[in-house]
Amino acid sequence: MSDPSAYSYPSPLEGYENLEPLSDERAEDGKSFKNPQNGVLSKAYSGFPDPLSKGREGGFDVHIYHFQNNPDQAAFAKALWERIRREC
User: Fold this and answer.
1) Burial degree of 48 (CB within 10 A; 0-12, 13-18, 19+)
2) What highest taxon heads this organism's lineage (predicted)?
3) Are 64 and 77 in contact (CB under 8 A)?
């Protein structure tokens, strides 16, 4: 198995520097966070292929797995999570 530390990746927040911090406010479902609106929705909001759900909850869920005791992985996971929230 290859060593993940042998690779480097650009920050998921590249191009998103110096923006206002994201809110910790929860969405109506009480589980997810409210994300800032950028005025343009992805086609994925209405264009999932059948039989995936086209409803409010969408056709998939995103999970970011990482080793919490690895500071590099934890920082990258947090940056990736923020990037995903900013693209909604």
Assistant:
1) middle
2) Eukaryota
3) yes
74: domain range? Answer: 43-87
* Amino acid identity at 50: D
| pLDDT tens by residue, 40-85 | 776 766 677 777 777 777 667 789 999 999 999 999 999 999 998 8
In a domain, 53, yes or no: yes
- Measured CA to CA in angstroms, residue 7 lies from 4, 64, 78 at distances of 6, 18, 18
**How far, in Å, CA of 23 to CA of 3, rounded?**
35
Q: Is residue 58 part of a domain?
A: yes
| Separation between Cα atoms, residue 88 and residue 86, nearest integer Å | 6
Q: Is residue 12 part of a domain?
A: no
The pTM score is 0.72
